[in-house]
Amino acid sequence: MIRQFLAIFRARSMEFLRDRGTFFWNLLFPIVLVAGFALAFGQPDEKVFKIGVIGPTTGIPAILSSPQFQQVPYPADQEAEALKKLRQHQLDLAVAPAQHRYWMNAESGKSILAERLLADELKLAASSMNPSTPALSLWAKGAVTGKPIRYVDWAVPGVISMNMLFSCLFGVGYVLVRYRKNGVLKRLKATPVSALTFLVAQAVSRLVIVLGTVVVVYAGTDFFLHFTMNGSYFDLLLVTVLGIVCLISLGLVFAARFRSEELANGLMNLLTFPMIVFSGVFFSLEGAPAPVRAAAEIFPLTHLIHAERQIMLNGAGLLQVAPDLGALALMTVVFLAIAAWLFKWE
Amino acid sequence: MDILRVENLSKVYGSLTAVDNLSFGIPQGICFGLLGPNGAGKTTTIEMMEGILSPSSGQVLFEGQPIGPKFREKVGIQFQSTALPEFITVKETIELFSAFYPNPRPLAEVIELCSLSDILNRDNQKLSGGQRQRMLLALAVIPRPELVFLDEPTTGLDPQARRHFWDLVNRIKAEGTTILLTTHYMDEAELLCDEIAIMDHGVILERDTPTQLLRQHFAGALVTIPEEAVANPSDLQKLTCCHDLEIRAGHVEIETSDLDGTIRSLLEAKIDLTRLSVHKPDLEDLFLKLTGKFLRS
Ligand SMILES: Nc1ncnc2c1ncn2[C@@H]1O[C@H](COP(=O)(O)OP(=O)(O)OP(=O)(O)O)[C@@H](O)[C@H]1O
Ligand SMILES: [Mg+2]
To answer: Dihedral of CA B138/B143/B145/B150: which sign?
Structure first.
């Protein structure tokens, strides 16, 4: 059993390493994509200040309503969310007019500039109303710090996960259908190797390959781009492994029966396109209608990318991403059960 | 004792009965040839015996038992057409398959037995037809099988490669392995097989040793003359000698036990004998007689 497993694992991994075209495609494609994103969306050069307004807007200083300022409203209980965005440089200031408070990010040039404008305004207002009161005492100042989150920081989990999706689905689904069509599976059926041993060896080989690729791609691009990483690498690795296992299981469903590569290929494409669009690889679904967001939950990629972003951008721990991990684990079990039920050597 | 038996074996594809109620056994230690024209049902039969195809009805017994889990460890199979795993070499492929069996033949022995030393490090996809068949045979003998299935192993090989392949099969036979072979080539069957069965349309027409079959079906020599040598077809009617006369593919074939008499009566009928040929009937002739088809069509 173990001997059979290791032999198949070895043969499959060698096939991958020696198939130069596929090998470089698997490595280069995500690197080029990540680099492309970094270049295309590198410097968001916005001329306006983005101000998070927490709670009711009555009493907001007049200058914040001028065209240089764009107001983003937050409900009173979403203060933490607004401050998070401020830390990530997605807001330049946060104000809570009802509490007479404001926050700025000391590591952001734009935030410092915006604060100066606001402070001048407040000083002016205070002196005209009540000259005896110290200018800024009416509004309490809070300061946060945090590195900016660029689009590429946000996009990198999506892009790498999308690459994992291709590699798992096609590297397992397509390849096994090809084996079935050209008779390799029939030859193996004629040996004492069980379908289970064979499939597990295929899946583990793919897991090692995809994980290796992800680590190389991530490390390689991180070296130049210095992604924001607020969580633990161990958690990220764990989520990634679970995600790969889930996507490979999905690949096995496609690999179970089809004899025609074209059919399998077409169906896999039919699935990957909506999955990529609706799982938030390239753009956030936060603004999408609720039914769309709910529907996107059925894709494993949605959960994988969400969990990765939570860990990388928001420093979430495993407990906070537990719902995503649970969904991935459940899907894995369902996919494996379907694949086992459907599988035929021929 | 029969190592493998089939009983009332049938395979039905829709309205086509590819294999029709076959029952026969293969004695231990012999080379058994299954012969038949294209579409006769050879591959369908052999794959049911290998446990690869499930029969529509009937059963296959290995050593008296229905095919069980140990069967796969005791038989070696060479399919009519198989792809090999890509991007690995001949040696790596043999090592891969060796890992599948509990007591595989050592690598060196496989290489020696199937003459693979010159292509060991070649990629599977880059083998010539003959090299490929040697390689596939190697995969079949790795488990030290008690029984080897070879489905048209020499189809498409040049005469030299075929002879070489026959040597390899004889070596395996010499080890005492039972062989079940399908083929289109009568010379191959005559040379390798101890017993043959000729099948067409899913049924076995005849089954015996090659010599016995020839003795049964042919009286003596086979005389052939081109049809155009017979100026007037009615001349043939006048022949006194020959009751067993057939015209096939532009040739008049006369089967006779009295060669002198036949030639004499041909001369009497004034038939041109310049291109006359006489030969001992072989399996090819028997095959044509039984199936009415040319084998290599
Ligand atoms: N999967 C299938 N579905 C339908 N018909 C089939 C199938 N496999 C084989 N047949 C038919 O069964 C018949 C016997 O086929 P088989 O492959 O056993 O012939 P064969 O004797 O091996 O021929 P060849 O010498 O060409 O290899 C043929 O008429 C073939 O078309
Ligand atoms: Mg055949």
So the answer is: negative
Closest to A159 measured CA to CA, from A289, A41, A261, A9: A41
Q: Within 10 A of B148 (CB to CB), how many other CB atoms are there?
A: 24
DSSP state at residue A326: H
CATH superfamily of B219-280: YebC, transcriptional regulation domain (3.30.70.980)
Q: Which helix (H) or strand (E) holds B59?
A: strand B57-62
CA distance B228 to chain A (A): 48
Q: What is the mean pLDDT of chain B?
A: 87
Would you tell me how many other CB atoms lie within 10 Å of the CB of residue A110? 18
Angstrom distance (rounded) from CA B222 to CA B244: 10
Chain A residues whose beta carbon lies within 8 Å of the beta carbon of residue B97: 191
CATH architecture group of domain B2-209: 3-Layer(aba) Sandwich (3.40)
Please check whether residue B184 is in contact with residue B214, taking contact to mean a CB–CB distance below 8 angstroms.
no
Residue B192 CA to ligand 1 center (angstroms) comes to 24
What is the ipTM metric for this complex? 0.81
Chain A's closest residue to B73, CA to CA, is A192
Atom 31 of ligand 1, nearest CA residue:
B39
Write the CA distances from B151 to A103, B129, B179, integer angstroms: 81, 15, 11
Nearest CA to ligand 1 atom 18: B41
Which atom of ligand 1 is the closest one to the Cα of B19?
14
In sequence order, the 6+-apart residues with CB closer than 8 A to the CB of A183 are B79, B81, B82, B83
Ligand 1-lining residues (CB < 6 angstroms): B 13, 16, 18, 36, 38-44, 80
Domain of residue A78, residue span: 49-144
Q: Is residue A44 part of a domain?
A: no
Query: Rounded to the nearest whole angstrom, what is the distance from the C-alpha of residue B42 to the centroid of ligand 2?
Result: 5
- CA A234/CA A257 separation, integer angstroms: 36
- Res B293: pLDDT: 58
For residue range A60-81, what is the model confidence (pLDDT) as tens digits? 888 888 888 888 889 988 888 8
Q: What is the domain count for chain A?
A: 2
In single-letter form, the type of residue at position B219 comes to A
Residue A111 and residue A93 in contact, taking contact as beta carbons nearer than 8 Å: yes
pLDDT level of residue B181 (50, 70, 90 thresholds) = very high
